[in-house]
């Protein structure tokens, strides 16, 4: 006996549902395979040192957002790594990426981890620090 909203396994889930986000149709591939660093623009141009400080503040305060410290550490390492290493870190930590740009992730227990775009990539309007 299924629940009222269940559907046969051979049917694709409705568009926009969480089930459709985690797995590509017909595969067991997680979205980390299609992970792209987000492209974004800061409301005001930001320097490299300002961005670094903003990232440090986020990672210093992330334990207050809940979740597992080990998952946060894996996410931080993944954000700072190249794309291939990022995929390895995400997969080995058992992190489920719910958004293709990695802004929303879950651990295996269902805890949600939201990452701001500024920890994932540099803004398009990044300015170099004045010497």
From TrEMBL:
Pfam families in the cross-refs: UBD
Disordered: region residues: 1-55
Amino acid composition bias (Low complexity), ranges on this chain: 1-15
Alphabetized InterPro entries for the sequence: DC-UbP/UBTD2_N (IPR032752), DC-UbP/UBTD2_N_sf (IPR038169), UBTD1/2 (IPR039869)
Domain DC-UbP/UBTD2 N-terminal: from-to ranges: 37-129
Annotated PANTHER family: UBIQUITIN DOMAIN CONTAINING 1 PROTEIN-RELATED
Protein name: DC-UbP/UBTD2 N-terminal domain-containing protein
Species of the source: Astrephomene gubernaculifera
């Amino acid at each position: 006996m299924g629940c009222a909203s269940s559907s046969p396994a051979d049917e694709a889930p409705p568009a926009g549902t969480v089930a459709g986000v985690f797995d590509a149709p017909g595969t067991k591939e997680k979205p980390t395979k299609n992970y792209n660093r987000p492209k974004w623009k800061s409301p005001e141009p930001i320097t490299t040192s300002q961005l670094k400080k903003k990232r440090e503040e986020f990672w210093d305060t992330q334990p207050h957002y809940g979740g597992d410290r080990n998952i946060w550490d894996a996410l931080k390492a993944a954000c700072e790594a190249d794309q291939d290493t990022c995929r390895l870190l995400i997969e080995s930590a058992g992190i489920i990426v719910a958004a293709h740009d990695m802004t929303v992730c879950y651990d295996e227990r269902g805890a949600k981890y939201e990452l701001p775009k500024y920890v994932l990539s540099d803004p398009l309007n990044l300015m170099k620090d004045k010497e």
